[in-house]
Known about the structure:
This protein is mainly alpha-helical. It has helices at residues 2-16, 19-52, 56-64, 66-78, 84-104.
Amino acid sequence: MFWGTSFAIAKEALAATSPANFLFIRFSLACLILLPVACTILAYLGQTWAQARTATTRTAIILSMEPVFAALFAWWWIDERIGLWGWLGAALILSGVIAAELKSNPDVPGGR
Length: 112
């Protein structure tokens, strides 16, 4: 439906403005409205879908790792420097996750 109506809208818009202006407005609207909304909705849909199919404790452990993954991804992708407090925080989070997994996993020696 959107695809078909876009041709009629484009024809009317191109009669009033240049192709460059039309494309600038069209892609600006997509960047400012469509992409953030669609990406946010899809991310939360995927997260809640996965949470419904995973144990509560496992979900909490996975979600508690988000700051660690965010810091590591920023270090890898944009070469962000991680300070001492950042590394200590990541170590505390990782040790908490490991302790929770060892305590709740009966297959691991020492776990319940």
